[in-house]
Specification:
713 residues; 10-stranded mixed β-sheet; 30 helices; globular
C-alpha cells in the first residue's frame, strides 16, 4: 500500500531501506531507528517516527547524499546485516529448546494490535499486549500468525475542551503511508473472502503487516463490492453501536478463519485473545460439522486446539449481546446445520444471566480446553466468577489457569537505559533477560550513572509534554490556561508521580483528590514538592469515565496546586514511552479484585520507576517489600466510599512519610542513594519476572506444546 513511485527513487546502494521500512522490526531495534533518524532527522520527527512516510516525503537529493556518505553507509550496512541475521536465524530459543514441537503456526486472534504508533489500530492495554506477543514470538522463534482488523479510523484521538470535557476526534489513516501491504493473487487481484451477515454477502480483503518473523493479517471491509454500510463496518475500533459490534466480531472470527484458509495457512493451534474473537471457534466447529463430523466430536477437536485468554473481571470488559440479536445473525449462518446449529448457538448462552443474553466470554470458555487469566490474582478471581459453568467442580478445580502478562523489553526499555545496561551487563544481556541472576548485577551500577539517566528521561518527558502543549496552542486548540493544565509549569527537580491508564471507574483515577487540602500541602511543600501527571482516555460511551476525565482535568486548573497537577491529552503509544520512562513513581489505584493485570506498571518498573499501588493484578505477585509500595493492604468493607477514604488516607501517608522523604534525601553529590536502592530493586525484580520473554516461554511450554502433543497422540 506504499506509494511505489516515490519509493522507487531510492538509490541502489541504499535500496533496501524500503524493505527495512516495511518490516516493523525497526520499531524495537534502536540501531534501525537511528538509521532512519540519520537519513533526515526533521522528516523522521515530522512523520511521527514512521519510516514509510519518511521515505515517501524525503527528497532525491537527500537520498543521493546519504548513498555517498560513508558514515551513513557504515550504519546502513550494519543495520541490514543485523536484520538479515535476525530474519534468517535458525538457532532461536524455540529452535534450540523445542525443535519441531509445533508443526505449524499458532493463529493469534485479537480485536486490536499495538505494534507502533504509525499503525494506530489499538485502544489500550489489550492491543499493546497483542503487539508485544507478536514481537516476542518473533524474537523467540515461536511460529505464529496474528489476525485482526484494519481500522481506517482506528480509535479516537482525545482533545480536552476549555471547559474540561473530553472530545473525540476520528482521523482517517493514510494506509499508503503505513507499514503494511495489500495481499494480492498471482493475477494481481486482492485476496478476498466472503461471509454472510444476515442475508447479505460481505467481501473482506486481507492486508499483511510484517512484525519481524511474525506475520499479522488484517481484515478490511472497505471494498467497492460492499454496501456503504458494510464498507464502514471496519472503520472504527470498539464502536458503541451494539449491532455493528456484533457484525465486526463475526467478521473477525469467521472471516479471520476463512482468510487463513485462503492464504493456505494451516495453524496447529488457535489462540483467542479475549471474548471478542470467540466466533473463530464457532466457525471451526461449523467447518468440521459441514464435512460430516458429529457435533460433539467437532467441539472436542476444536476445544483441544484452542487457547482462550480472558483479561478482565469487569463486566464492561465482557461483550454481552441480546441473544435475539446474535441469533438473527447466526440463523442464516448456521441454517444448513439444523439442530446442530442450535447446539452451536447455545454455546454462547449465559445461563447465569437474568435476561436471555449471548456472552462472548462464555462462548470462549466453552470452546477452549486451555484457558488462562492474565495474573495469579486474576486467575483466582476468574475461577470464582465462572464457577457456574462447571458446577460439578470445586472452585479451585475450575479449569482456568493463569499466565501473567509481560512486556516486550526491546519496545519499552528506554534507549538510554539500554546503553547503560550494555555497558554493565554485556552487549548480549537481552538473550538472558528472564534470568534473575543477570539482573542482580544491576545492583553494582554506580548510583551516579543511573541517576544521570533517570534525570535525562524525566527531562525528555517534560520536554515532550511541553512540545505537545505548545503545538496544540499554536494550532488554536488550547487556551492559555490549558497550557498550564497540560504541564508547562512542571519542573525536572520535583518528584513526579504518574497515573496513565484508560479511565474507568474501577481504576479510581481521582482517588488522590479525596482530600484536596491534604494533597495541596503535599504538592506545594516548599522544600519537598510533588507534581502529578495524568493521562488516559475514557470510552466515548462510558459517561462515568468521561466525568472522571473532566474532574481530574478541572483540578489541574486549580491554582491551589500551583501548576503541579497536569493532564497530558491523547494518551497513545508514543506518549506512553515518555511517561513510563520519565516519571519517578507509577501510581495505580484500582478497586481491589477488579484489576486483571495492569502492564503499564511493568513498563514503568522496567525503566526504574517504582510502583505505588493497590496490591492487585500483577502487583499482587510483583511486590516484594523493597521494590515499591503497597497502598492499604488490608480488609475491605461493604461500602466503597469508606474504602476510598481509607485508601486515599493510606496513599497520602505513604507519600508524606516514605516516598517523598526518600526521594529528597541526597548525599554530598546530590544523589538520592536510598531512592536509587528502590529503583535498582524495582528493575531487578520486575524485568526478569514480567518480561514478554518469560510470558511467551510460559505460553509455549504450558499451553501451546501440550495442546500440540495431545493432537499427535
Amino acid at each position: 500500500m506504499k506509494d511505489t513511485e516515490s519509493l522507487s527513487k531510492l538509490p541502489e546502494r541504499i535500496g533496501r531501506l524500503r524493505e527495512l521500512a516495511d518490516n516493523l522490526w525497526w520499531s524495537w531495534h534502536t540501531e534501525a531507528r537511528d538509521l532512519f533518524r540519520a537519513l533526515d532527522y526533521q522528516l523522521w520527527s515530522a512523520s511521527g517516527h514512521n519510516p514509510v512516510k519518511q521515505l515517501c516525503d524525503v527528497g532525491p537529493g537527500r537520498l543521493q547524499a546519504a548513498a555517498q556518505d560513508p558514515v551513513f553507509l557504515d550504519l546502513y550496512d550494519s543495520v541490514l546485516s543485523n536484520f538479515d541475521t535476525y530474519m534468517s536465524d535458525q538457532a532461536t530459543w524455540f529452535d534450540r529448546q523445542h525443535p519441531s514441537a509445533l508443526p505449524a503456526p499458532v493463529a493469534y486472534f485479537s480485536m486490536e494490535f499495538a505494534i507502533h504508533n504509525s499503525l494506530p489500530l489499538y485502544a489500550g492495554g489489550l492491543g499493546v499486549l497483542a503487539g508485544d506477543i507478536c514481537k516476542e514470538a518473533s524474537d523467540l522463534g515461536i511460529p505464529m500468525v496474528g489476525v485482526g482488523f484494519m481500522y481506517p479510523q482506528g480509535y479516537f484521538h482525545q482533545r480536552l475542551s476549555p471547559d474540561c470535557w473530553q472530545q473525540c476526534d476520528y482521523r482517517q489513516l493514510d494506509f499508503g503511508e503505513a507499514p503494511l501491504c495489500r495481499l494480492c493473487t498471482p493475477q494481481g487481484n486482492r485476496v478476498t473472502i466472503q461471509i454472510r451477515l444476515e442475508q447479505r454477502p460481505v467481501s473482506v480483503a486481507v492486508c499483511q503487516v510484517k512484525v519481524g518473523r511474525t506475520n499479522l493479517y488484517l481484515l478490511d471491509t472497505n471494498l467497492e463490492a460492499n454496501s456503504p454500510q458494510d464498507r464502514k463496518l471496519s472503520s472504527r475500533l470498539y464502536t458503541a453501536d451494539r449491532e455493528q459490534r456484533v457484525e465486526q466480531e463475526l467478521v473477525l472470527g469467521i472471516g479471520g478463519v476463512r482468510a487463513l484458509r485462503a492464504l493456505g495457512i494451516k495453524p496447529c493451534l488457535w489462540h483467542a485473545n479475549e471474548g471478542h474473537t470467540s466466533f473463530m471457534m464457532l466457525e471451526r466447529i461449523r467447518e468440521l460439522v459441514d464435512t460430516g463430523v458429529p457435533f460433539e466430536d467437532a467441539l472436542r477437536r476444536v476445544r483441544s486446539t484452542t487457547v482462550f485468554t480472558t483479561h478482565t473481571p469487569v463486566a464492561a470488559g465482557t461483550d454481552v449481546f441480546p441473544a435475539q440479536l446474535v441469533g438473527r445473525y447466526l440463523r442464516s449462518y448456521l441454517e444448513s446445520l439444523g439442530s446442530t446449529g442450535e447446539a452451536l448457538t447455545a454455546l454462547g448462552e449465559d445461563s447465569g444471566s437474568a435476561v436471555h443474553t449471548f456472552n462472548m466470554t462464555v462462548l470462549g470458555l466453552k470452546t477452549a480446553h486451555h484457558i488462562n487469566g492474565v495474573s495469579l490474582s486474576h486467575g483466582q478471581v476468574a475461577r470464582r466468577i465462572w464457577h457456574g459453568l462447571w458446577p460439578e467442580l470445586r472452585e479451585e478445580q475450575v479449569p482456568i489457569n493463569h499466565v501473567t502478562n509481560g512486556v516486550h523489553i526491546g519496545t519499552w526499555l528506554a534507549p538510554e537505559l539500554k546503553r547503560l545496561l550494555n555497558a554493565h551487563l554485556g552487549a548480549n544481556w537481552l538473550t538472558r533477560q528472564d534470568d534473575p541472576n543477570l539482573w542482580s548485577r544491576l545492583l553494582d551500577i554506580p548510583d551516579g550513572e543511573l541517576w544521570t539517566v533517570r534525570r535525562v528521561l524525566k527531562r525528555k518527558l517534560l520536554g515532550a509534554m511541553l512540545a505537545r502543549a505548545q503545538k496544540a496552542w499554536r494550532d488554536g486548540l488550547l487556551s492559555a490556561d490549558q497550557l498550564i493544565m497540560m504541564g508547562s509549569l512542571l519542573d525536572v527537580e520535583v518528584l513526579t508521580v504518574g497515573f496513565a491508564r484508560r479511565f474507568a471507574t474501577y481504576k479510581r483515577p481521582s482517588l488522590i483528590f479525596q482530600d484536596t487540602d491534604r494533597l495541596e500541602r503535599i504538592v506545594t511543600n516548599p522544600l519537598r514538592p510533588v507534581q502529578i501527571v495524568f493521562a488516559g482516555k475514557a470510552h466515548p460511551a462510558d459517561f462515568e469515565a468521561q466525568y472522571l476525565v473532566h474532574r481530574v482535568y478541572s483540578l489541574a486548573r486549580d491554582r491551589r496546586f500551583q501548576g503541579r497537577v497536569a493532564f497530558a491529552e491523547d494518551y497513545d503509544m508514543h506518549l506512553a514511552h515518555y511517561l513510563t520512562q520519565g516519571v519517578d513513581v507509577w501510581l495505580n489505584t484500582p478497586r481491589p479484585g477488579l484489576e486483571g493485570c495492569g502492564t503499564s506498571g511493568m513498563k514503568a518498573g522496567l525503566n526504574g520507576v517504582p510502583h505505588l499501588s493497590i496490591r492487585d493484578g500483577w502487583w499482587h505477585e510483583g511486590y516484594n517489600g523493597e521494590n515499591g509500595w503497597v497502598i492499604a493492604d488490608g480488609q475491605r468493607g461493604a461500602d466503597p466510599r469508606s474504602d476510598d477514604a481509607l485508601d486515599a488516607a493510606a496513599l497520602y501517608r505513604l507519600l508524606e512519610e516514605e516516598v517523598v522523604p526518600r526521594y529528597y534525601e541526597r548525599d554530598a553529590y546530590g544523589v538520592p542513594v536510598r531512592w536509587l536502592q528502590v529503583v535498582k530493586k524495582t528493575m531487578c525484580s520486575v524485568a526478569p519476572a514480567f518480561c514478554a520473554t518469560r510470558m511467551m516461554k510460559q505460553y509455549a511450554e504450558a499451553l501451546y506444546m501440550p495442546a500440540a502433543l495431545a493432537i499427535r497422540s
